[in-house]
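sorry for the late reply, my laptop died twice this morning and i had to redo everyting from scratch. anyway the thing you sent over, i finally got around to it. pasting the sequence first so we're on the same page, its 129 residues, then the predicted structure underneath. double check i copied it right bc i was rushing
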Amino acid sequence: MPDYKRWYDHDPLLLEVVNLLRDYQDELKAQAEVFLAKIEEKVSKDAMVRFYELVKPENGSRWYDKDPVISMTVELLRVIPPENQRQCALHFINSLKKMGIDYVSPNFDLTDSESGVAVTEKVSDDKAV
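ok and here's the structure:
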């Protein structure tokens, strides 16, 4: 089993979403708020706040600790089961299009339909057989 430095390094899709959040915090804050609202529908806001108070670091030295919305989004994404992490990451990227953000994943062909979300990993020329 490979050693990963960060919790999201094991999945290129999670890595992509976390990098998007890091690089475009201001632009994606509204999307992060939508993500939190959807989580809040499943659990209570009080439970989310209590959880966040338990996991947030005292010194807040990570890049995402500077904004409470982005921080809570990353922390919730970190602790949900791996099968849900990927699904949330897919929905996050696909919802960018709904927000009018013209984003094309460098790693995946993503499609969103009423029946669910599909992902196909792009194959680069150097990987082609």
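The two ends are 26 Å apart (CA to CA).
thats about all i looked at so far, will dig more tmrw
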